[in-house]
Amino acid sequence: MAHNQERTNQDAKVWVGDLDPQVTDSILWELMIQAGPVKNVHIPKDKLSGMHAGYGFVEFHSEEDADYALLIFPHQDVKLFGKAIKANRVSDKVSVDVGARGQL
After folding, report:
1. Mean local confidence (pLDDT), 22-51
2. Cα–Cα distance between 95 and 67 in angstroms, integer?
3. Is the pLDDT of residue 22 over 60?
4. Would the pLDDT of 1 be above 50?
5. pLDDT at 26 over 60
6. Contacts of residue 37, Cβ cutoff 8 Å, sequence gap at least 6
7. Bridge partner list, 58
8. How many other CB atoms are found less than 10 A from the CB of residue 56?
9. Within a 10 A sphere around the Cβ of 47, how many other Cβ atoms?
10. pTM, rounded to two decimals
11. What is the 3-state secondary structure (H, E, C) of the chain?
């Protein structure tokens, strides 16, 4: 079955953390376009509370733009609502624990 969604470029994706609860997708977008053209911003939200957990993902148009963001944002003490943000490369090899573990 074909998907109509564009595939994301993990190498052009940056994790941004230590986000203040007031930070929205739009605010993060406006900050990140300072590094280069942004393709997508996503701040996951809790389904029940509607609040985010303090992190988000920014996909740039190119790996070079993501590299530049990683050069400038973590090292310039950039703050949003008084909190310094963190930024790291997103890895497509992240393991996710999705349930209880037990011995079989």
Report:
1. 95
2. 23
3. yes
4. no
5. yes
6. 60, 61, 62, 65
7. 14, 41
8. 23
9. 6
10. 0.78
11. CCCCCCCCCHHHEEEEECCCCCCCHHHHHHHHCCCCCEEEEECCECCCCCCECCEEEEEECCHHHHHHHHHHCCCCCCEECCEECEEEECCCCCCCCCCCCCCC
| Tokens at 57, concatenated | 């993902």
Residue 90 CA to its chain's centroid (Å): 8
Tokens of 48: 């029940």
Q: Which two tokens stand for residue 68?
A: 């530049």
Residue 15, token pair as written in the block: 């994790």
In the numeric block, the tokens 């998907």 are attached to 3
Phi, psi of 69 (to 5 degrees): -60, -40
Place of tokens 């509607």: 50
Total count of residues recorded for the chain:
104
22: which 2 tokens? 């007031």
Confidence of residue 6 (pLDDT cuts 50, 70, 90): low
68: left (phi over 0), alpha (psi -120 to 50) or beta: alpha
Kindly state the tokens that stand for 82.
């008084």
